[in-house]
Amino acid sequence: MNFETQLKLQAYLDGELPESEAREVAKWLAHDQEVVLLLGELRNTRQAIAGFEAGVRLPESREFYWSKIDRAIGQLERPQPVAQKRPLFFRLQRFLAPVSGALALAVILGITLLNGNTGTTLGETELASEDMGAITFRSESEGMTTVWLYNRGDSEFTDDPAPDSVELQ
Amino acid sequence: MSDKDHSSADDQALVRSAQKGDMGAFEELVARHRDKIYARALSMMRNEEEAVDLSQEAWVKGWQRLAQFQGEASFGTWMTRIVINLCLDQLRKHKRQRTESIEAMDEDSGGVERQMPVITVNPTAGLERTELRQRIDKALAKLSYEHRTVLVLHEFEEMEYKEIAKTMECSIGTVMSRLFYARRKMAAILADLRKEEGS
Amino acid sequence: MSIRRFLAYLITLVGVLCFGSARVRATETPGTRVEAILVWATHVAKTNDTSLKELDPDLAKKLSKRFKWNLYYEVRRKEATVGTKDATHVPISEKCSLDIKDLGDERFEVHLTGKGKPVSRTVESLAHGHIMIVGGDDKNDTAWLIVIRQVPAKK
After folding, report:
1. Residues of chain A whose C-beta is under 8 A from some C-beta in B?
2. I want to staple B143 with a disulfide (CB 3.0 to 4.6 A). Which of A54, B10, B147, C87 is the partner?
């Protein structure tokens, strides 16, 4: 059986052949066992995969799945924010040359505050609830920082001893 | 349309309401068809995370293009076409390397599928639905993305050869070759799985 | 030095600082590609649960050196591009999400929200090769871990 015949047989199975060619294939099927076997295999495969997708379920709840779609649609439809005015500091820049020493010092202080790192120190952890505790352990050699959260009410964890679920070196 | 009406309304009515801006109606359509859209994306992408993301992107696109939906096909079919196109774009973007060099030769040099012995015993006969799904899943994962895509478009999306050719931007002959290879490879993989698992 | 000359020097210094500051602010670094992986740590193998897949072996090895559990399963993995301007929302599961912001100098601020309520805020390094883990105990002597890191370069 040559490749052209094989493809024609497939097209016959898929209903893609014009009538005259379909009749030709039907004749082959009547006389050639090899053709019959190949058609059988193609048909079995087709039947096996039919309905494959029917059992597939989205692994997210309706609400959770919808929330992201809703947010994305909302972002598309929200009017674009008006370009923010450049901060006063930059608009005043061209006036700084003739300004007195006192104003210059105030501006230097302002620059420091704008670019400063207040509240963003490495290793900071804040908790939203007083009922919770956190243990942070950083290992440069392992390249790992662990922040372990726990309920203060749990008997395993107190503020002092090391919890048994975090191995400290 | 109230929330109670949404669940009892048919797709056509929901689409009409959604086209007028009723988000609740659109949400009901999402709930009804989300599994199907996700399943199609999963069949093509073989990655759950990507399938979830692309299916959600498809819904957003569906909302944007809702005015263009005239009811020429069912709403579910219209949506699956959107997700298929997104998946195809993503697959092209990935420019996945073919994992088996022999596959690169298949379409040009004659193809091993033409010489494969015919699998005469149905390799999936008697299998429970779950087990069958698992085996099909494993077998699909072993196909290249071109072969899997043509199989998905033909078997699940029920596209004709010429439609697949247009979607995949290739010739009808290439579609037929790829589909033939995909089917024969699936049969061989399923037969091997049957042997391995002793059933 | 006269007062006038001193003021002139000061004003020049301010001008240079302002210009430098403006140039730094004008350059917004491109976003950093970050991934968050929800991991379930346990002692007992879960071969029947198809929603779980075994964690990347390198990462599992790293975790097993730090934590007591033998087995680590990947529950969910999300990638996101994190910028310096606004926090990027990363929903990691139905019950929790992260909001991550690049603070510069490879410091990242991570807000964890659970069941719709804020849980914690952490500022940590996410330099390449460094991972941050936020975790807690779960039922039956298991634990949940969220591994956050810059997306590693593909091998």
Report:
1. 3, 6-7, 10-11, 14, 16, 34, 37-38, 40-42, 44-46, 48-50, 52-60, 62, 65-66, 68-70, 72-73, 76
2. B147
pLDDT tens for residues A121-151? 677 788 888 778 888 888 888 888 999 888 8
Q: C101: helix, coil or strand?
A: strand
CA dihedral B68, B72, B75, B81 (to 10 degrees): -80
Which letter does DSSP use for residue C29 in this model? Answer: P
CA atoms within 13 A on the CB side of B197: 15
Q: State how far the Cα of C60 lies from the Cα of A110, in Å rounded to an integer.
A: 47
- Residue C152 in contact with residue C54, Cβ under 8 Å? no
Collect all residues of chain C within an 8 Å Cβ-Cβ radius of residue A129. 119
Q: State the pTM of this model.
A: 0.58
The answer to whether residue B103 scores a pLDDT higher than 90 is no
Q: What is the mean pLDDT of residues C49-59?
A: 81
Contacts of A62 in chain B (CB under 8 A): 31, 34
Beta bridge pairs of residue C149: C35, C131
Which CATH code fits B101-196? Answer: 1.10.10.10
Q: What residues of C are in contact with residue B49 (Cβ under 8 Å)? A: 76-78
Cβ within 8 Å, pair B180-A10 = yes
Q: Does C135 touch chain A (CB under 8 A)?
A: yes
Tell me the pLDDT tens digit for each residue of A77-117.
766 566 656 666 656 655 655 555 556 566 555 555 555 54
Question: Which residues are CB-neighbours of A153 under 8 A, at least 6 positions away?
Answer: A131
* Residue ranges covered by each domain of chain B: 3-94, 101-196
User: Phi-psi region for residue B169, left (φ > 0), alpha (ψ -120 to 50) or beta?
Assistant: left
The architecture (CATH level 2) of B3-94 comes to: Orthogonal Bundle (1.10)
Nearest chain C residue to A168 by CA: give it. Answer: C66
E strands in C2-139: 32-42, 53-54, 71-82, 88-91, 96-104, 107-114, 117-125, 131-138
